[in-house]
Specification:
This protein has 5 helices and 14 strands. It is an alpha+beta fold and 246 residues long. The chain folds into 2 domains: 137 residues, Endonuclease, Chain A, CATH 3.30.870.10; 98 residues, SH3 type barrels, CATH 2.30.30. The protein has an 8-stranded mixed β-sheet with strand order 1-7-6-5-2-3-4-8, with helices on both faces. Strand 3, helix 3 and strand 4 form a beta-alpha-beta unit. It is globular, with a radius of gyration of 19 Å.
Amino acid sequence: MKVDQLTTNDALVRSVREQLESANSEVLIATQPKMLERIEDSLEQCYQSGTFIALCLYSDPEAAAEYDYETTATLVRAWEQELDTMVSVDHERGVVGQLLEPDEEEDVVGLEYDTERLYGMAMLQFMSQQWDNGEEVYVTPARDLPYECANLRDAALNATLHLREENKIGFDADVREAPAEEDDTWESLQGQLTATRQSFVDPSTNSFFGEIGLIGYTDDGRVTMGGTGAYFEDYEARNITLTSLE
C-alpha cells in the first residue's frame, strides 16, 4: 500500500496527468473546469487509447455543455459544487486534491494512492455523490459492432445503448463461475444479451447501488454476468466482445 502527499499545485496536476497516461481500462474523474483545462490533452490521450472515462465536471450544466467531449470522455455529468478533484484508475489507484488559489497556503494539496481499499472508497463516493447528483451532459454514441469492450462498465454501457435502439446484440466473453477463487479456470461463453444492470446513463437499470451486470441467454438458458469480484451473478466476465445479431 502506498499513499504519497502532494504539496504543490504543479505536483497535483502532474499526478493527475500520470494517472491518466498510465490508465489501461477505466478512469472515474470528478474535477473543476480550471483543472480540466490543464489536463485535457492527457485526458484526450487516455480516451483515444480506448479507456472508459466517466467525467463529472464541477460546473453548472449549461456551462459544462459548451465543452466538446467527443475526444475526451465516454460519459459526462455536471454538478455545480466546489469539491476536490478525484481520479480513480483501473480499480486500484488514484489521486484526490484541490488546486490552491494564489492567496491560499496549505502544507498538503492532495494525496496519491495505490491501494484497492482506498480505490473502493473513492469509487463508492464518486458513484453515490458526484455521479448520482450530477446532470447528464454527454453520452458517447454506441460503438459499432463487433466491439471489444475495455471492461464490464464499457460493455454494460454499449449494450444499454444498442438495446435502446432495439438492436439485437450477442456477446463472446471469458467467464468463470461466481464467486470465483483466484485460480479458478476461465472458459469461453457466447450468447445473446437482453438486458443490463447499470447506473451510468439515465434511466438507471440496476436493482441495487453499484450494480453493474449483463443479462443474456445461451443455449443452456438465462445467464447473468458481473465484473471483477462478481458475487450475485452466475459468472464473472472479462474480455467481452459485443457482436451484432442482425
